[in-house]
Specification:
The protein is of the alpha/beta class. It contains 9 helices and 10 strands. The strands form 2 sheets. It has an 8-stranded parallel β-barrel with strand order 1-2-3-4-5-6-7-8, surrounded by 7 helices. It has a two-stranded antiparallel ribbon with strand order 9-10. Helix 1 links the parallel strand 1 and strand 2. The longest helix has 20 residues. It starts with a strand and ends with a helix.
């Protein structure tokens, strides 16, 4: 099974886009995960630059945050259709709200299925705080009732929400793994969605817990005969990245950590 690694645009918005793409290629990634501008000309410019660089696109949805459900639903569909116009590998969506009812969140998920059927672009839903999938046990309830749901697995959020490494929720995690189509390789811990630096020995237990989950996903997909799989190392910019007090200085380089994660996982899953 071939693993393609995608670089998050998040945290590199300050760079000219062409310079960012060159940096991504030099670092050994196969593509970029990012949102797209809503305006046609700007969106097409981003997509054309990606194509010209030989990098692929995972389109990322996160912007729909309206509290009113009907407004949210309308804007969500507009965002998904816009991303689909960029012809991405697939769309990774942070979907719904933790305070919406299950019926409301399922309206959004079903709408995403309709957009996918219409456009031919697959849509997966990221496990994320604040969304319908904010916790392992809640996601389990959706997956048991609606087995068509496909996930982007970012388990770092669940460790933070549960204040554990989920050893007491193994059935929920195992079910989520079976529904996983994409991995966000960020390491969380019991009091936050991102360890300050996964290279440091203080966080080896957190790293190892996440590696075990990711190993299980990759092994399962291999057993199922999947030929290609995608991983985005997605350690985030501040405030995900810890800042040193009074200095506004990151405690570690977000870029370097994500490159480290790619370099760690690529040989691990190359055989």
């Amino acid at each position: 099974m071939k693993i393609d690694f995608f670089c998050p645009h998040w945290g590199s918005e300050h760079l000219p886009f062409a310079a960012f793409l060159e940096k991504v290629k030099t670092a050994g990634y196969q593509g970029v995960e990012m949102s797209l501008p809503m305006e046609d000309t700007a969106r097409n410019e981003v997509v054309n630059q990606l194509k010209g660089s030989g990098l692929r696109l995972i389109a990322q949805h996160w912007e729909t945050v309206d509290a009113d459900f009907e407004t949210h639903k309308s804007n969500y569909k507009k965002r998904l259709l816009n991303l689909a116009r960029g012809a991405p590998v697939f769309i990774n969506s942070q979907t719904g709200k933790d305070y919406y009812t299950q019926a409301q969140n399922m309206e959004l998920i079903n709408m995403a299925e309709e957009v996918s059927a219409t456009t031919g672009v697959a849509i997966v839903h990221e496990t994320h705080r604040g969304k319908w999938s904010f916790a392992a046990h809640i996601t389990q309830q959706y997956l048991q009732k609606f087995p068509q749901i496909r996930l982007a697995f970012d388990v770092s959020h669940w460790c933070n929400v549960a204040e554990t490494y989920l050893h007491d929720q193994q059935e929920a995690v195992e079910l989520a793994i079976k529904h996983t189509w994409h991995i966000h390789a960020r390491v969380g811990h019991t009091e936050g969605p991102q360890v300050p630096d996964p290279r440091s020995p203080e966080w080896i237990d957190a790293l190892n817990n996440h590696l075990q989950w990711w190993d299980t996903i990759i092994d399962l997909r291999r057993q199922q005969g999947v030929e290609k799989f995608t991983i985005t190392p997605e350690f985030g910019a501040p405030p995900y990245t810890t800042l040193l007090p009074f200095t506004n200085t990151p405690i570690a380089s977000q870029w370097e950590i994500n490159v480290f994660m790619r370099q760690l996982l690529s040989p691990r899953y190359s055989s």
